[in-house]
Design goal:
Elements (H helix, E strand, L loop, with lengths): L4 H15 L1 H20 L4 H10 L4 H11 L4 H11 L2 H8 L11 H6 L3 H8 L12 H32 L9 H18 L3 H16 L4 H23 L1
Helix pairs in contact: 1-9, 2-9, 2-10, 3-9, 4-5, 8-9, 11-12
């Protein structure tokens, strides 16, 4: 009798692909923009592949490339990355229960938790959505979503770098592609969750952090304010 397991895995992979199409469309464009930018400031195309496989940080890669091109020391780049990616502390804490029981896949799930992957995985209802009644398939589905997202990013960035070696491009405004993706994903999240309170609180916290605190401290301040105010938003959402 034919083993149905491979077929089941293919079905889960296809379901993950369909679920991650919004990130595919965004990462294809933004990855190309990153590859073009990295090549445009004088780095070889293969460095794009190395960064996208090993670092895989989206905004962090854009920032690191710009800082290194400006002659910033490696320690300063690492410090900036630590501050910029501090938001992943909140991401990780909120995904603790969802990543429980992943076994050997858990380290990769932690590594691959970008903003966009977090947006997709955190939107999965606990008792609804794809494979909600099958824990093993649900975990495999989440793993495939994370893996596909990185594949989209790696493919897009390498294509952009290779295109830069063949075709001259004007790099002006390319960096805004990442901001555009964040805006699109936020709009999709608001439509899906239908609880705009958390987004309003996050926007208010970001504005307060920028205007009340100087420089890089504003990011940490915004994160702290969002964490302080989020319980009030959750309580209001449960009461409605």
């Amino acid at each position: 009798m034919r083993d149905p397991a491979p077929f089941s895995r293919r079905m889960v992979l296809f379901a993950a692909f369909r679920y991650s199409i919004p990130v595919l469309l965004g990462y294809a464009a933004i990855g190309v923009a990153f590859g073009l930018m990295l090549f445009g400031i004088g780095y070889p195309w293969w460095l794009t592949l190395v960064m996208s496989l090993w670092m895989y940080a989206g905004a962090g890669q854009f920032i690191a490339a710009g800082l290194l091109a400006a002659g910033t020391t490696l320690w300063e780049v690492c410090l900036v990355q630590l501050v910029v990616n501090a938001r992943h502390i909140a991401y990780g804490l909120s995904m603790l229960s969802r990543f429980r029981g992943f076994g050997p896949l858990k380290p990769y799930m932690i590594f691959s938790l970008t903003d966009e992957t977090f947006a997709l995985l955190s939107s999965l209802p606990d008792k609804a959505g794809p494979y909600a009644d099958d824990k093993e398939k649900r975990q495999l589905f989440m793993f495939y979503v994370a893996l596909l997202d990185q594949c989209y990013w790696v493919s897009g960035s390498v294509m952009g770098a290779l295109a830069g070696t063949l075709i001259p491009f004007d790099m002006k405004g390319v960096g805004f592609a990442l901001t555009a993706l964040f805006v699109v994903l936020m709009i999709e999240q608001i439509k899906r969750i239908k609880t705009p309170g958390v987004f309003i609180v996050s926007a208010a916290a970001a504005l307060l952090g920028v205007f009340l605190f100087p420089g890089r401290i504003s990011l940490l301040a915004a994160l702290a304010l969002a964490l302080i105010l989020s319980p009030f938003t959750e309580r209001k959402g449960r009461g409605t």
